[in-house]
Amino acid sequence: MALVCRGSGIDFGSFGMWWICQSPGKGLEYVGSINSGGSTDYAPSVQGRFSIYRDNGQSSVTLTMNNLKDEDSTVYFCAKDSDAFAWDGSGAAAGAASAPPQLL
To answer: Which residues contact 1 (CB under 8 A, 6 or more apart)?
Structure first.
């Protein structure tokens, strides 16, 4: 299964992108991220099962999900990071991000 997020009105290739999710009654949870150079980071719960790709020409980021589990059934969002570096989900930047992402 794959989810595709397309951005408009931004210089898409200049920003890191996140995938996050939210289950009923829970807060937002980090799924994974990809920086402007294509390097990826994943939550431990999806590592090895989910993959994130970006196509800057199409201003899109894709989340591919394999070996789905019951707990993967939730609402997914993509978000734009504050700069070219995607966070690592711990609150520390995998590079130099300084603010939380913005939902697209």
So the answer is: 64, 65, 66, 68
Which one has a higher pLDDT value, 30 or 86? 30
Cβ contacts of residue 32 below 8 Å, gap of 6+? 18, 19, 40, 41, 42, 43, 46, 50, 52, 63, 89
At residue 7, the pLDDT reads 82
**pTM given for the model:** 0.80
pLDDT for 9 equals 74
- State both tokens at 93: 């930047």
SS (H, E, C) the chain: CEEEEECCCCCHHHCCEEEEEECCCCCEEEEEEECCCCCEEECCCCCCCEEEEEEHHHCEEEEEECCCCHHHCCEEEEEECCCCCCECCCCCECCCCCCCCEEC
Q: What is the pLDDT of residues 1-20, one digit of tens each?
A: 999 999 877 788 888 899 99
